[in-house]
Amino acid sequence: MKINRELSIPVLLLTRQPDIWASGQQARRLSRRGSQEMIHPLARICNAGAWRACCPQPAVFPQRALRRCWSLLLQVCSRRAYLVAGLVMLALVTGWTGTVQAGIASTKHNLSVDGLGTVKSIDETEICVFCHTPHRAIKNDNIPLWNHNLSTAGNYGVYTSPTFDGAATIQDLGGTDATTAAVSNLCLSCHDGTVAINALNNPSNANLSGNPTMGGTNADGTLPDGTAMLGTDLTDDHPVNFIYDSALFAVDNSLNDPATLTGVILFNGTVQCASCHDPHNSENPAFLRISNTGSALCLRCHNK
Ligand code: HEC
Ligand code: HEC
Ligand code: HEC
Ligand code: HEC
């Protein structure tokens, strides 16, 4: 949910200059023809009584008269305008309008024709298909019904430092295949920049082109350079694919007990990309599971 989109509605209503709207005679003609577009939106929201009370000519809104009674009208109408704007906001928040929804549809991971980002399809209307399929999935017991072709990168490297306590169990995410992929390999199937975004195991039956046709990608279909393109070197990234259990907790006294974590999740007891990120929800920036204001996300696991 982008808050500025809602806020822009009352701002738009109350600040639009009257000059762009129909002048007296035009407005009269337009309203006789039942044409409403050129009639000031504030005028449409306020009832005729309010207009009559403030303006010399009810029903039509000549440019000059509108200017004269502008401030008076604002007082009478603003409460009503705010009420309408409030209802519009509520409608957007609760998804009444059917066009704006919470969840993945309003994130950059909506890669369908309705996607919000620059990377999106020009002919695929399904959202989940870029990552999941109900049938013929790339399947092992660690990943959910996966549909995006996995990367064949042989070696991502692992994080290392003299104080890193997960070194004993951390495993390179490179060299995996359909039978061994971990949750982080799912993210890397797009974010290491080696596999085309439209490379699906089982394209949707509804799309006659088979694999979706994309816009916004590199010529070879891969994720363009930018902060979202992590590349195939994970040695400079927060460690993933290692076990975070009571043994690690016992060794590292600045971690929180993994049995009591909230907000973040472990996959089979391991830290993965999706421990911190929820790929379906960008209520927090960067798909974070919880807001990182005040480093709250970090402090769910680290007791610093
Ligand atoms: C950009 C990729 C992507 C898209 C698009 C996507 N998912 Fe996922 N989904 C994932 C990944 C990665 C996981 C594993 C990590 C996790 O569980 O958060 C996952 C896990 C899941 C899970 C199992 C975990 C859970 O939260 O219950 C379900 C169910 C699911 N997705 C449903 C959906 C549905 C339904 C859609 C479409 C509305 C969708 N996903 C779209 C990437 C995606
Ligand atoms: C099917 C391909 C695909 C998969 C799988 C995928 N992503 Fe993405 N992701 C994208 C695309 C495309 C973008 C938008 C890139 C851009 O706009 O430059 C993106 C953007 C992001 C962003 C940046 C969001 C922002 O607001 O700028 C994050 C964070 C992210 N993805 C994390 C993940 C994580 C974590 C996973 C796995 C749990 C994942 N992604 C799986 C394709 C994918
Ligand atoms: C320990 C938590 C954590 C893990 C694990 C993690 N990330 Fe992130 N990620 C973050 C945070 C926090 C941000 C936001 C950084 C910022 O706002 O500056 C982020 C940002 C991103 C971005 C946006 C680009 C950027 O640099 O801001 C992408 C893409 C991304 N992560 C993908 C991944 C992938 C793929 C993995 C697994 C290989 C992963 N993340 C693992 C915490 C994590
Ligand atoms: C899901 C739990 C989790 C979250 C969330 C998390 N971490 Fe970690 N992080 C770990 C674990 C477990 C380790 C390995 C234990 C260790 O050596 O500290 C680790 C390792 C590290 C290390 C390496 C320590 C070393 O000795 O080299 C740093 C630094 C770090 N995390 C910083 C962060 C920051 C900053 C954030 C927030 C952006 C964050 N972590 C979020 C679980 C998490």
Descriptors:
two-stranded antiparallel ribbon, 2 domains, 304 residues, globular, 9 helices, 4 strands, mainly alpha, 3% strand, two-stranded antiparallel sheet, single chain, disordered N terminus, binds heme C
Could you write a compact summary of the structure shown?
The protein is mostly helical.
Plain-language structure description:
The protein is an all-alpha fold and 304 residues long. It folds into 2 domains: 3-94, no CATH class; 102-304, no CATH class. The protein is built from 9 helices and 4 strands; from the N terminus they run αααααβαββαβαα. It has helices spanning 3-15, 24-32, 41-45, 48-54, 63-94, 183-191, 246-251, 273-276, 296-301; strands at residues 120-121, 214-215, 242-243, 270-271. A two-stranded antiparallel ribbon has the order 1-2. Bound molecules: heme C (4 copies).
- Class of secondary structure makeup: mainly alpha
Q: Work out the helicity level.
A: 25-40%
Number of strands: 4
Amount of beta strand: under 5%
The stretches of 5 or more residues where confidence is low (pLDDT under 50) are 1-24, 45-51, 55-60, 90-100
Rg, alpha carbons = 27 Å
Shape: globular
Largest sheet: 2 strands, antiparallel
What is the count of DSSP helices, taking H or I runs of 4+ residues? 9
Give the neighbour order of strands across the main sheet.
1-2
